[in-house]
Amino acid sequence: MGYSNFFTVAAFGTLFAASPTLAIDIAVDANAGIKKISPYLYGRNIDKISDGDAEVTEEESAFINQMLEAGIHMLRANNGNNATRYNWRHKMTVHPDWYNNVYSHDWAITAQKVLDKMPGVDAMYAFQLTGYAASSTDYNFPDWNWKQEHGTYATQTFDLAGGGEVSEDGKTLIKAGDPSLYNMEWPADSTVAIIPHWKDELKFDMSRFKYWSMDNEMEIWRGTHSDLDLPVTGDFLVERYIDVAKKARAAWGDIKLTGPVAANEWQWCSVSSYNKEDRPKGEDRNYCWLEYFIMKVAEEQKKSGVRLLDVFDIHWYPTEKDYESRVNWHRVLFDTTYNYPGANGIKMVGGNWDNKITKEYIFARINQWLEKYFGKDHGITLGITETSIIDNDPMVTALIYASFLGTMQDNGVEIFTPWTWGDGMYETVHLFSRYGHPNRVQSTSSNDSLVSAYSSISNKGDSLTVIFVNRAEKDAQDIDLNLANFAS
Fold first, then answer.
1. Is the bond preceding residue 260 a cis peptide, omega within 30 degrees?
2. What does the alpha-carbon distance between residue 45 and residue 217 come to, in Å, rounded to a whole number?
3. Which residues face 167 on adjacent strands?
4. Per-residue pLDDT tens digits for 3-15
5. Which residues pair with 457 in a beta bridge?
6. Which end of the chain has fewer CB atoms within 10 angstroms, the N or the C?
């Protein structure tokens, strides 16, 4: 072939080569199951990069260099709940987890830092869907003065901006603040106008900012943005989504829209208040929120001819503490055989509570719904833009993270940006991003729940990397590796 072939093996946990009769059989076929691996699997939420000062500090520079060295390719830069009422014109946002106080923020600053300092890294920002954005910093609750006078902060989730009052012990809300004092109306036209502003006025390279999140965890706005008192029903959320999505697509045809950015496992299926007249003809049932969202957006896309969704984006914060559950979290995404101990909201997947449902396979379900309502070849991919998978043991964290990355590569997931970051994660993403290759190839294991192999091959087919994950808590594993269609 005119060149030498290279074969690389890396392992999480301990493996031994051994007699085939004693070993776990691993088969890798370099010609089978070839899929392009999205570089945006190697991502995280933004941290330690200020959007208030254009100067790059020494700490920021060290953080940026660490991400570049590790091979990070995607930053989710909208800061979650703080994105919902971001006002790009006034450069400020409401902090809903901190009394609804309004502070200065300028996304254009972090965007410029990404452009100037982070080659090969793209960033995701967000549109606002509530219809409101921050308008003034003049009506903040005086949190620091309160702490000096009372020795502690008042309960942070109280709606105190805008003249609210709280009891002397800080634990009882006496009067909520007036949200009209620090919010302004912010229709779809206003939120999507950031696109021509960045593209035409600031002259940003928008190819680095293709992905735009459709707000954040909108089905829990009644809690996270309680001061707005929004009617959070399926119909209301879909209506707000479609309005902004259409205008965003009109502003930039090549934009990538990610939604619905659902909050957690319980919320995947728990939004109620569905209108009977919106049910398909002949059906008399409620819908899991994610299925309902897909159904209604697909209906509007077919009717309008406007592409309304590019990446189906969810959040997930698993809470199990035991080792066995943690090293199997990746199986919640696609494994139709796995009985997940944390299965909860999914029990309402059929519209009513069914306690017998213990198999989650949420991404497999979403793929089924996407094909059912959008049709085959819809082109909508998958992503998780918030999760926390950190364990106290960095090796366990690495095992969990590697299992997520490998599973997502095997199934064509496009975006993965964990919210929290811990020891073991930089080393893991470095291995996958720097030593892996652009194309996934098929790997099978005779005991995949214990030892998985995740394989990738170069574009020329001359280099192959196999990453093994041994999920045994203590024991080394013997493996017998069989390579097909690759001359090492």
1. yes
2. 15
3. none
4. 335 556 666 666 6
5. 439, 464
6. N
**Tens-digit pLDDT profile for residues 316-351:** 999 999 999 999 999 999 999 999 999 999 999 988
H-assigned helices in 71-212: 107-117, 143-150, 188-192, 194-196
Rg of the chain's alpha carbons, rounded to an integer? 24
Cα of 290 vs its chain's centroid, Å: 15
What the block records as the tokens of 178 is 């007036």
The whole-angstrom separation of Cα 280 and Cα 4 is 58
Query: What is the per-residue pLDDT for 271?
Result: 72
CA atoms 327, 333, 337, 339: torsion sign: positive
What are the tokens at 234? 């399926």
Q: Using 50, 70 and 90 to split pLDDT, how confident is the model at 2?
A: very low
H or E segment to which residue 457 belongs? strand 451-457
Q: Which residues pair with 132 in a beta bridge?
A: 185
pLDDT interval class at 17 (50, 70, 90): low
- Distance CA(57)–CA(200), nearest Å, equals 28
The phi, psi pair for 164, rounded to 5°, reads: -70, 160
Cα four-point dihedral sign 317, 448, 311, 52: positive
Report the distance separating Cα 450 and Cα 475, nearest Å.
Answer: 11
Within a 13 Å sphere around the CA of 165, how many CA atoms are in the beta-carbon half?
Answer: 3
Higher-pLDDT residue of 232 and 279 is: 232
Q: Which helix (H) or strand (E) holds 35?
A: strand 35-36
Question: Which residue bears the tokens 């098929």?
Answer: 442
Q: What is the pTM of this model?
A: 0.94
Given a cut of 90, is residue 225 above it in pLDDT? yes
Q: For residue 377, what are the contacts with CB-CB under 8 A and spacing of at least 6?
A: none
Which among 406, 387, 380, 376 has a CA at the least distance from the CA of 471?
Answer: 406
Q: Dihedral angle at the C-alpha atoms of 315, 409, 40, 131, nearest 10 degrees?
A: -30
